[in-house]
Design a protein that fits this description.
alpha/beta, seven-stranded mixed sheet, 13 helices, 41% helix
């Protein structure tokens, strides 16, 4: 049964969608059957894989509303082992429409249950907000991967995010764990980045991924061509870094590494209320 990883951070501009696209593509390039689910109404994960806006195409909206089965919505990408459930602008209204539906928090979990046996990994790109779409993603997930910039404000809001994940564990999804924290837009040449990385290592310990993602022009250019970095420029530092991150996550998964709960992380730093 596939492992479901939600890529989440309520703070925008931290490389969340870039991580979702390139992690999923790197897993697939390694021959690992992977599904990427775009849960963000901006549809950047979809366009980043070459799927432009198409009002007639089935999307995550229809999946959540029970209007179509996952198997009807799947799109094949350029990579043989990567499929996509694209987003659409209709997701903008989903937060309101979901309120009146039965099992509103479990809609995504229920919808993808039949698909999980077909993939080793299912990656969910969450919107940059703690709304019903993100809630559905976290309830459906086995773990959460948090992209974070190496800046002094990096820890701002982390306690809130971990607290939210812990509340979801207690109420909806007791198995939800922290997959890890990955540093993005990292410039190892600066003292600031090294200092923040050290601080984050002290905070998260082994949950801070060994692989960091550098600032990289080719990585930033790739989405405008509708390609993940490894298809746009496989020799770029950005592509190579996401390949290493994929290897790290696969190794943890197949080795059944123990994951930390949000409560354990918060308690270790005295941040519980």
């Amino acid at each position: 049964m596939g492992k479901v990883i939600a890529v989440a951070n309520q703070k925008g501009g931290v490389g969340k969608t870039t991580t979702s696209i390139n992690l999923a593509a790197s897993l697939a390039a390694a021959g690992v059957a992977t599904l990427l689910i775009d849960c963000d109404a901006q549809s950047n994960a979809s366009s980043g894989l070459g799927f432009g806006k198409d009002p007639n195409r089935l999307s995550t909206y229809e999946l959540l509303m029970g209007m179509a089965a996952g198997s009807e919505i799947l799109q094949q990408t350029e990579l043989d082992d990567l499929q996509l459930i694209p987003a659409s602008k209709n997701l903008i209204g989903a937060n309101i429409e979901l309120v009146a539906l039965d099992r509103r928090e479990y809609r995504l979990r229920d919808a993808i249950a039949i698909l999980k046996d077909n993939y080793e990994f299912i990656i969910i790109d969450c919107p940059p907000a703690l709304d019903l779409l993100t809630l559905n993603s976290l309830v459906a997930a086995d773990s959460v991967l948090v992209p974070m910039q190496a800046e002094y404000f990096a820890l701002e809001g982390v306690s809130e995010l971990l607290d939210t994940i812990e509340r979801i564990r207690q109420t909806y999804n007791p198995e939800l764990a922290v997959e890890g924290v990955v540093l993005t837009m990292y410039d190892e040449r600066t003292n600031l980045a090294q200092s923040v990385a050290s601080e984050l290592k002290g905070y998260f310990g082994e949950r801070l991924c060994d692989t960091s993602i550098p600032r990289n022009v080719r990585l930033a250019e790739a989405p405008s061509y509708g390609k993940p970095a490894l298809l746009y420029d496989p020799r770029s530092r950005g592509a190579e870094s996401y390949i290493k991150l994929a290897e790290e996550i696969v190794k943890k998964h197949r080795g059944k590494a123990k994951h930390s709960t949000p409560e354990e992380i918060l308690q270790a730093h005295g941040d519980t209320q």
